[in-house]
Design brief:
Elements lengths: L4 H44 L13 H9 L6 H11 L5 H8 L3 H17 L16 H16 L3 E2 L5 H17 L4 H14 L25 H14 L7 H14 L8 H14 L3 H15 L1 H14 L6 H13 L3 H14 L1 E2 H17 L25
Parallel strand pairs: 1-2
Helix pairs in contact: 1-5, 3-5, 3-6, 4-5, 6-7, 6-8, 7-8, 8-9, 8-10, 9-10, 10-11, 11-12, 12-13, 13-14, 14-15, 15-16
């Protein structure tokens, strides 16, 4: 029996009431969130069925309509891209988080904020008329770019390539170019995709293993796709409205033009990456630049640049930084450090063919050591030759 039964009953009743109010508030909040989700899904369903689409060009297919619809300028760029990738791009939340180099929880919050913004601001899911398409183009191109990247080098799973994603991204990029033929970055992105996709069949061995760029059978490259990509690059660069996709396409063209690995013009590639860094100084672009410098000016120079990136910490969970460092350390004869870097890369990648490649390299470093020349495979499979503003391949 409490000392003061009346006070005890009052306190207990008050706590019960507070608990009940809290439960009601949580229920109300969850109900509101579910209502917002339902409204968004209903609007998307209406847009997908053709509602609100009469005011745009007839030659825009349904999926592209929805991508332009989701890339609304009222949303922050990262929010609109993440929402579009999740809703329409066929990518999961973990895959999108890896593309943005952020924790999965951070990406999930971006999605929640974007959906809440759409609901609270009353943003309609309506395809914009043709004259408003350019203001949404940057987001649309980024979406297609990231979808292609996930297809080009899958972030997880047993296969290196997801062909269905790459093919869909290329198809949609062609449609964008046909809609907006005077937008050089749209043409540059299509060229970039074609020039990389031309090497697709040579990137995977008979057992599904990763094949480095320098070891690929170049007779298996798609020369028709290369010719088309080069033609697009040559057509768009003289417009003097150079952007990141055009520069990456020019880099890819230099790789495709080389008769063999030794004939690659790494000095010119390093110069183009330097220009790309000026436009987009993101850590991944700077990593690609460092790889190109390593091939052009020597591994010690490139490694110093990579070490600076590592010290910044923004790429600490990025497996391609560790893999590229490992290959340069190996070329410099610093085998124990190379082994540690290979282990870091292995721990951070979820793609099985990449893990197999790294395991093989680690075994070679630990068991065989360097030969007298100190030669080993360069980091071309990891950076410097892939679609580099998001994730090198």
């Amino acid at each position: 029996m409490p000392d003061n039964p009346g006070a005890w009953i009052t306190t207990t009743a008050r706590n019960r009431a507070i608990d009940r109010l809290r439960r009601r508030r949580r229920l109300r909040d969850k109900t509101d969130e579910l209502t917002r989700e339902a409204a968004i899904e209903a609007d998307l369903a209406e847009a997908e069925s053709g509602g609100g689409g009469a005011e745009t060009a007839e030659d825009m297919d349904d999926r592209l309509r929805l991508i332009f619809t989701c890339c609304h300028p009222a949303l922050p760029m990262d929010g609109r891209i993440a929402l579009t990738l999740r809703t329409l791009g066929g990518l999961t939340t973990p895959e999108i988080a890896r593309a943005f180099l952020v924790p999965e929880a951070t990406l999930a919050q971006r999605l929640v904020r974007a959906k809440r913004k759409i609901h609270d601001a009353g943003i309609p899911y309506r395809v914009p008329p043709r004259d408003l398409l350019p203001e949404r183009l940057d987001g649309v191109l980024k979406v297609l770019y990231l979808v292609y990247n996930e297809g080009y080098a899958a972030s997880s799973g047993d296969a290196l390539i997801r062909r269905e994603l790459s093919a869909e991204a290329i198809r949609l990029a062609r449609t964008v170019v046909s809609l907006l033929p005077d937008e050089p970055e749209a043409t540059g992105l299509l060229a970039l995709m074609l020039l990389h996709d031309a090497r697709r069949d040579a990137r995977v061995g008979p057992d599904g293993d990763l094949v480095l760029l320098e070891d690929q059978d170049r007779s298996r490259w798609d020369q028709v796709a290369i010719a088309e990509g080069r033609t697009l690059v040559q057509a768009v660069l003289p417009t003097h409205r150079v952007g990141p996709y055009q520069l990456q396409a020019a880099i890819a063209a230099l790789h495709d033009e080389a008769a063999d690995a030794a004939g690659t013009d790494w000095a010119q590639i390093a110069t183009l990456y330097r220009a790309l860094v000026d436009l987009d100084p993101s850590p991944v672009v700077r990593l690609n630049h460092a790889v190109a410098v390593a091939f052009a000016d020597g591994p010690a120079v490139g490694l110093a640049m990579m070490d600076g990136l590592a010290d910044e910490g923004s790429l600490a969970s990025y497996p391609y930084l560790h893999a590229a460092r490992a290959d340069l350390l190996r070329r410099l004869g610093r085998r124990s450090e190379a082994a540690a870097a290979y282990r870091n890369a292995m721990a951070l990648t979820a793609n099985r063919p990449e893990q197999t490649y790294l395991e093989r390299r680690l075994h070679e470093v630990e068991q065989e050591g360097e030969d007298e020349s100190g030669r080993s495979a360069g980091p071309g499979a990891w950076a410097g030759e892939g679609p580099g503003a998001s994730r090198p391949s």
